[in-house]
Amino acid sequence: MKKNYEFEKKKKLRRGIFILPNIFTSLNLFCGFLSIIASIDGKFITAAVVIIIAGVFDWLDGKIARATNTTSKFGVEYDSLADLISFGLAPGLMMYLWALKPLGRIGWLAAFLFMACGTLRLARFNTQVGTISTDHFVGLPIPAGAGMNAVTVLLCLKLGIGNNVNPIVILIMLYVLSFLMVSTIRYNSFKKPELFKKMNFNVLVATILILIFIAAQPSIALFLLGFAYVTSGPLSFVWHYRKIRQKKAEIRKTDKHWETFT
After folding, report:
1. CATH number for the domain running over 2-197
2. Which of 21, 118, 124, 227 is at a distance of 20 to 30 A from 180, taking alpha carbons?
3. The pTM is what?
4. CB-CB neighbours of 68 under 10 Å
5. Tell me: the pLDDT tens digits for 52-96?
């Protein structure tokens, strides 16, 4: 009788653990819906902040699922659907209503392109789960693309240019983000355990300083961090490409020298 009670207790606990990551996914979805409502009401600061909060919930649900060993196919699919709303539809609508509406059809097509490329990015990610290394993302993650949109809105409103922003600049930014999401450019996933094991005192101090900067000037700090991450992929790609070309040039030079010697 006691064994049956303990078994039922463990079963309930296991069921609760499975529910826990999905609760955070639901909070992510709720934030996405709230952002859409805020954008429609013209409350763009709220819309942008809620998208960033959705990103936090999206990060937490994955961490909790891996930490409790409760990852499941349902969780992956549910997370992708929530991400589509929070990081595809919500930021696309926000950018259109905030800056792209004066461009008419070109404006809403750019917003649609962002959402469509984000959807393709999610679909590709789901098909690659378990087949590729988790050390890097292939293409810009959709939460990072949505976050870049959100911090851009916050920065412009902070600088007082929110109502006078050039829609062409925002249009170009959306096209660039859309391309990066469906590209094969690699982005660091920060999932390597070595990144946290090898942290020394100087890294800890730098992290604290960054957190202080974020607390003091959140709009500026988050924009700079987002911009640094978005550009890190193309810069890393160029650096690796140049390195490969240099190696090939050295090999050719060695082969020529060997042929001359022989």
Report:
1. 1.20.120.1760
2. 21
3. 0.84
4. 14
5. 999 999 999 888 887 777 777 888 889 999 999 999 999 999 999
